[in-house]
Amino acid sequence: MDRIQYRTADSLLSYIDIPEAVTAWDLACDGAFLWVACDAPGYPLLKYDGSGSVVDQIPSSLVPSATGLTMDDQGYLWASDNLNGKIYKIDPEGTGTGGGATQGIRPPELSVSPVPSTGAVSVSLSGFDGPVELRFVDCSGRTVGTAAVAGDGLLWSAYGLPGGPLPAGVYTVVARSGGLEASGRIVLVR
After folding, report:
1. Is the dihedral of CA 87, 22, 177, 91 positive or negative?
2. For a Cys staple, 31 with which of 9, 62, 148, 176, CB 3.0–4.6 Å?
3. Is the confidence at residue 135, as pLDDT, over 70?
4. Distance of CA 19 to the CA centre of its chain
5. Residues 6+ apart with CB under 8 A from 167
6. In this structure, are residues 131 and 150 in contact, taking their beta carbons and an 8 Å threshold?
């Protein structure tokens, strides 16, 4: 685990621990938050709070390979993408900055309830434009179900699937639409 030390806007010294699976490539401080670009292409830009929790992200579909980050005096996050030869100006508040490839970004969200569940869950979506493809995956990475959603969610049941009901365990639901992605966890108990 990497420990990163940074100063917040009010000059307080803070630390966050980045999980071992993530190696920080570059950092930008946004007041009390820290934006992290990771060393793997296709990894989202992650925003951490002072406790080390991810509180926001910019998906790799919008900034495919960020290798440099900085925050300007107006609060815009700038990300360089050396693989694609681009520089992105991002409004982290999502209000938009206008012009060209510049865009305000609000990440898509997916929530599952109830957790845990005995077999039926409600999947709620926001931040997606157009139809959304849902894929339900078990711990081994095997797809156990799919669905297409035109609205903001659906009710999904672990019963009535080909092969019978799913056993108790942890499953992941992944939502994709137009390069945007969000995921959530389903915990089935019997």
Report:
1. negative
2. 9
3. yes
4. 15
5. 188, 190
6. yes
Quickly name the fold that domain 109-188 has: Immunoglobulin-like (2.60.40)
Of 121, 120, 123, give the one whose Cα is nearest residue 134: 123
Q: Token pair for residue 108?
A: 């898509």
User: Is residue 20 scored above 70 in pLDDT?
Assistant: no
* Mean per-residue pLDDT, 1-15: 47
Tens of pLDDT, residue by residue over 100-127, are: 343 444 567 888 899 899 888 889 888 7
Matching residue, tokens 């900055």: 97
End-to-end CA distance of the chain: 35
Topology classification of domain 2-104 = Neuraminidase (2.120.10)
Domain limits, the chain: 2-104, 109-188
* Candidate ranges 9-13, 30-34, 173-177; pick with highest mean pLDDT: 173-177
